[in-house]
Amino acid sequence: MTTRIAILSDLHGNRAATEATLAAIDAVAPDAVYCLGDLVGYGPFPNETIDLIRMRGIPTIMGNYDDGVGFDRDDCGCAYTDPAEMARGQQSLIWSRRETTPNRKEYLRSLPPEIRFEIAGVRFRLVHGSPRRTNEYLFEDRDQRSLERIAAAADCDLLIFGHTHKPWQREIGDVLMVNAGSVGKPKDGNPDVAWLLAEIAPDGAVSTRLQRVPYDVAAMAAAIRASDLPDQFARGIETGGAPAVAQPSVAGTQAATVPSAG
To answer: What is this structure's pTM?
Structure first.
């Protein structure tokens, strides 16, 4: 029997986007659901977003923002290069630390750095940024030799990660590397949430499909503007992180297959 796994990442305090994603996942009724972290930051509903994941008991990885807020750190680990963006990120961190309740911070501190499992001989490794660091950005245009080194040391057949908010997938060596995109703060020019559906056949063949789901972006943007958070965060979810016109919502826009594991 084929096993289906749903994976979501980078929710960032966006309650409406998270609710829409969970509803879409419920409709598919997968065998398991996993979250790659960053439940908080940027969005106006950190506590409510945490509760949506925690109350369902969804296995979740600690993202860099979860670490920053959970441990009340002075840095979210975002590696900003633009001074204005860095200032907004710091404002987001301080705001999220202030608004997130102590018991939710305790939950964030309890999250593991990665999740591993095996299905039909296929070894899965789920991380937030990379196998090396929680806050390492694995962009699609990263130097091929660097990706090859990461894949060679990943000790898995399927490496799934988030953090960049830009979905992509490619087979590097013997490893299928998949970025699951972002639920709460997409940056690929499409404001619809992104989540990943992986299907594992009994013979170990794997297919992955990126799912896109619309949600009430206007209401969430209004909630950001009603808070003390920067207006740029509202514009970011309205545009999908880019000034270009957003693409139409399409489910299953990416697909790939890995051979059976030995």
So the answer is: 0.91
